Automatic annotation (TrEMBL):
GO terms of biological process kind: amino acid transport
GO cellular component, as recorded: extracellular region; outer membrane-bounded periplasmic space
Family according to the record: Belongs to the bacterial solute-binding protein 3 family.
Record-linked SMART domains: PBPb
Signal peptide: 1-18
Every Solute-binding protein family 3/N-terminal domain range: 50-273
Keyword terms of this UniProt record: Signal, Transport
Species whose genome carries this gene: Aerococcus sanguinicola
Protein name: Amino acid ABC transporter substrate-binding protein
Amino acid sequence: MKKKIFALLALVALFLTACQSGQQTDKEPAATAGKQAAARSLAEIKDSGKIRIGVFADKMPFGYVDDKGQPQGYDIELAKKIGEDLLGSADKVEFVPMDAASRAEFLKSGKVDITLANFTVTDERREQVDFALPYMKVAIGVVSPEKALVTDINQLKDKKLILVKGTTAENYFQKEAPEIKNIDKYDAYQEAYDALRDGRGDAFSTDNTEVLAWANENPGFKVGIESLGQEDTIAPAVQKGNQELKDYLDDLIVRLGQDHFFTKAYDKTCLPVYGKDVDPKQIVLEGDDLKAYYDAFNYAKK
């Protein structure tokens, strides 16, 4: 109970910080109606002494708040490294909590400089934001109670499916499985998991990396479908047209990949959750795999 109280208080504090960071200052222009706010240049970020990075606060092991009120997770490790590399200290990162549906909007409005909230790269999202190089692989999974395990997508036709708004899973079921109509959608991951745990739905679908972690931490639930659709990638996103910041992130991710930073981050944040049964290479992108994505998706600098 104490851990839940600490986590709740931490979330409130983080969201208050996010609200404050969204207020207009001389160097934080607000977007006018129907227009995109001006993105901050690298010089402006350095002059301000802080970089605003959007993250999840409720998605273990990628972005969450621990019982001491501190942000933790795989995405958080990368965010801290950005702070260290660009500004000399991880303490210069201002973490801005966001939900899945606001990841692009927070960039457009200038509330964040970078979105690192487990953001899957899609063609639709590329129309709204610019993605840097990917640092992670992902597909869609489905978790359900072991006593009524969902192992095939066709089983969902007669069941209630839980989704989170603004996710690739929501997009997948809208486009690829429109026959599944009994769906409840939630704004936050914690709300969705609570609904599954309470029996308000029969299954929950989101990134397989997420549901595998949650099932390992919650006895009585299992991932019956480990992969739906094509394998995707997860990458940092910047405001559309912010080439300078995108180029910086591309260069940093290549350097970090050469130093095996992402494997080390996985060992620190994901290994304790997934255990040794999950091969890190199914998730981590670095080395030759990263170069392949660099070439395939034409991320090379012009």
